[in-house]
Amino acid sequence: MNIILNEDSTSWLLVSFYDKDDVLTTPSAAYYWINDFETGNVIKAETAISPLSTTAEVEITASDNAIIDNTLPMEKKVVTVRAEYGAGKQVIDEFFYFVKNLRHES
């Protein structure tokens, strides 16, 4: 399933944290960052997720969803989440979505 958001729109990503037994758990620390998929350019630098719980809502701001290349009809973004569970244990996952360029003429 492709998630498509309009450019310059705020969105939210619900993140859930699981232990090795697939049980919801609260990590000791968690971070997220956003990159442009095609170029790898950083859109949002690593940011701590707070408050920590078994789930967290990450706000993706309107400026995070700005179009970088106005010649494209859509841009693919990737949100990476890293959860730490102490003693060098971590889990990393990614979420991909598209941002629609509302000003693009086809």
Describe the model.
This protein has 106 residues and is an all-beta fold. The chain is built from no helices and 7 strands. A hairpin with a 5-residue loop joins strand 3 and strand 4. It is elongated, with a radius of gyration of 15 Å. The model has no long low-confidence stretch (mean pLDDT 94).
Order of helices and strands: EEEEEEE
What is the approximate shape? elongated
- Separate helix tally: 0
Oligomer class:
single chain
Number of strands: 7
Strand content: over 45%
Topology of helices and strands:
Layout lengths: L3 E3 L4 E6 L12 E8 L5 E7 L6 E6 L13 E11 L5 E11 L6
Parallel strand pairs: 1-7
Antiparallel strand pairs: 2-5, 3-4, 3-6, 6-7
Features:
7 strands; 5-stranded mixed sheet; two-stranded antiparallel ribbon; elongated
What is shown here, in short?
This protein is mostly beta strands and 106 residues long. The protein is built from no helices and 7 strands.
